[in-house]
Hints:
The complex is a heterodimer of chains A (264) and B (321). Chain A has helices at residues 4-7, 22-33, 50-64, 84-95, 112-119, 136-147, 185-200, 208-211, 220-238, and strands at residues 11-15, 37-40, 68-72, 101-105, 127-131, 153-156, 160-163, 168-173, 176-179, 206-207, 249-252, 256-259. With 264 residues, chain A is α/β, with parallel strands linked by helices. In chain A, the strands form 3 sheets. Chain A has a 5-stranded parallel beta sheet, with helices on both faces. A 4-stranded antiparallel beta sheet of chain A has the order 6-7-8-9, covered by helices on one side. In chain A, a hairpin with a 3-residue loop joins β6 and β7. Chain A is elongated, with a radius of gyration of 22 Å. By secondary structure, chain B is α+β, with helices and mostly antiparallel strands. Chain B is 56% helix and 15% strand. Chain B contains 8 helices and 7 strands; from the N terminus they run ααααβαββαββααββ. Chain B has helices at 3-31, 39-68, 77-113, 118-149, 162-179, 200-217, 246-249, 272-283, and strands at 158-161, 183-189, 195-198, 221-228, 232-239, 287-293, 304-312. In chain B, α3 (77-113) packs antiparallel against α4. Chains A and B meet through α5, α6 and β10 of A and α1, α4, α5, β2 and α6 of B.
Amino acid sequence: MTSRSIGGGQKILVVDDEHMSDLMRSVLRRLEADGFRPVVVAPDGEHVTGDDYETHTLFALQAERPSAVLLDVRFGEYDTDRFKGLSILKKIVEHDSKMPVLMFTQYAQGPYRDTAVSASLGASASVDFIDKLASPEEVVLRLRRLIGSAPETIKIGSLFELDADNAAVYAIDNGRRDLIREIQGMKLDILNELASAMYRSEGELVPFSRLERFSDGEDSRASLRVRIRELKVSLGRAVSREFGANELIINVRNRGYRLVNPTD
Amino acid sequence: MSGRSLKIVSVTVASVGLALILLSPIIGELINPGSLWWIDPIAYIGAGIFIVGSLAAFTVMQLVSRTTSGTNDDRSWSQVTQDYFDTFAHDMGRPLRRILGKQREARALLNETGEVSQHMIAELLDEIENQAPNFRLMIENVRVLVDLEDRSAAPIIEPVDAAAIVRNVSDRYSPIARERGLELVWWCEPSEFGLVYGDGSALDHVITNLVDNATKFAEGHIEIRLTRSDSSFLVRVWDDGSGIAESHLAHVFDRGWTPELSARSEKQSSGLGLFIASSLSERCGGELLVESRQSNGASPGEHYTTFTLALPLDNRPVATD
């Protein structure tokens, strides 16, 4: 339930003749769990060729209006279809030059990459490549970044919710959202900065250089340290807890800070 | 058939072998649900196919380079092939051993008691999942090696979002680091890093090898830092492992550098990844440096290994008059 909001019900068009394989099923399951709505392109008939996929994909682009496309390079057992995915990619980009496309390649970035890039027509195309053996989590992360729009609210574990648009942070208790009034101004900015980094990438650290604008006085690091301690105390008080040095907001030795999901 | 397509075919065969090994539990389950008997034979067949494929790849590679350019290498052709093969066998054997170990334990229990605990199955599945990045990296390493032998091939220069590449590698290795109790963090300065002109695929591959290496040796922390200066950008991968002896530092990037000789010995790496990372960096007009402080004499937290990759910000060819 906590992750429901990530995908926000956005449609993802899935174009892969192996969409029934276990590997792809795990990806589809993950997409659904994260709140996306995968729409699988599956032409009927006995001898489905790459061309059938191409026609159906173009039709689905108009009918379904997906937020992104997940596309395989290889189609079918026919030799002529070996790189059919690239020609479908080309058609997608011709149809909508801004459509985010995440392309599955067989061997990491492999020798297909160059061919694919030249086929993708222009630098504005939002195309990325991922190894088919990548974990479902990695696929979803990549897709999410490709689509690009940050969510209105970022969940911090199951305890907090940050609403950047309305400049508010809430404590969550059994589905009820309680506004934490103490956190506003620079403290909220700091939290926003840390939460955005966490949303983008699990291991991303926010260096001091980026946080120092949220501090003042001669010793900006000390002032920042104080603000972060206050922030941590306010967050803790809202959920009747005390967060230790290695919880929630962690100071990474002389580098910066990072936010980690609190344990329940 | 041209040399290039022969290369691709042989690499594909090797990759199929790897895939067979990796998927052996699933295939075994399909053939005879409920029994673990088939996993072993399938994995062995996979290993066989991999060996044939890699040998073919290097044979082709050597033939092609012989016909296109005379070789000045002192070592004989068979010696080079042998070296390659040894390192591959070493790198491939490790993840395979770990998976097979868990699997055999489970089967022994199955034979004895007639059932396997949920816990054991979960452990086996986790092991397979955790070894997946190793196999991915090896498949890619084989491809890059074959590519590197082709001296006529030039890096592909395109606008690259270097921060996105570091982020992707971090995402790929975060679950593995977490599993091993390591903290993996990354950051870039400036925060809006911007584009560089270079070979994105090569950059991804070099960083992947460095981070993969760091996850093997770190004791608690791994850091990836991306910075830029006027003309170049730097990727620094730092780990708090026990460090490399000074006498070994000079050989870290050698092909066939055998870790059995080094302090990092029991930590299961052939060093092939670092050789590839270093060669690839040079081909992209940059360099890869290593710096290390060993644990003897240093207090905890003071021993480390740092790999620094330096690449030009703009690697587009300069027009000459």
